[in-house]
Specification:
globular; binds ligand 3AM; Cyclic Phosphodiesterase, Chain: A; 178 residues
């Protein structure tokens, strides 16, 4: 099964993000219930391994923290856009939580994640999106932000890949301390 660790978003925040849908040719918008912040992609694991991962994640102790979304942006490769996202201001508690998740997974024998962490909420995916179109879209939503919201847990997700796009199933939530 395909797993990742993320932070779920409150319904009102997902609703605000839902208002950003549309106005971008060739974009496949993420369904509101799938909107999340990825902390650590795990990938395919043999069935049964999720129990060990769950056990390891459940031992993590970390404080809750506020987050706010601001500034839209995109990921591209050779000037072709493949994802449009809402960014997250750097948050020390979030970075420390991510480090604890990373440590727990590496202890279980997973490969360390070498890619730089760029916290974001993917809003849309594109195949070969035009940078000019995306720039116009971003300009139209210039100044987008949400007020801060409290992050009280992180979640182990299972990703079900299907023809209509991925669907994410929350397998377990792990509470953060107040
Ligand atoms: O949170 P977002 O939507 O940015 O793109 C995938 C998605 O990211 C990413 O993990 C999240 C849940 O599927 N993902 C997929 N394959 C990946 C890989 N090989 C990956 N992240 C890193 N390495």
């Amino acid at each position: 099964m395909r797993l990742f660790v993320g932070i779920p978003l409150p319904e009102d925040v997902r609703a605000r993000l839902g208002e950003l849908k549309g106005g971008l040719l060739g974009a496949r918008w993420v369904e509101p219930e799938n909107l999340h912040l990825s902390l650590r992609f795990i990938g395919e694991v043999p069935g049964g391994d999720e129990a060990d991962i769950d056990e390891a994640l459940a031992t993590i102790e970390a404080p809750g923290f506020p987050l706010a979304l601001s500034e839209l942006g995109f990921f591209d490769r050779r000037r072709r856009v493949h994802a449009v996202w809402a960014g997250i201001g750097m948050s020390e508690p979030m970075v420390r939580l991510r480090a604890k998740v990373e440590q727990a997974l590496v202890r279980l024998g997973h490969e360390p994640e070498h890619r730089k962490f760029k916290p974001h909420v993917t809003l849309a995916r594109m195949k070969n999106g035009s940078a000019a179109d995306v720039s116009r879209y971003l300009e139209a939503h210039n100044g987008f932000s949400t007020g801060p919201f409290d992050v009280g847990c992180f979640t182990l997700y299972r990703s079900h890949l299907g023809h209509g796009g991925a669907h994410y199933e929350a397998l377990a939530d792990y509470g953060l301390e107040n």
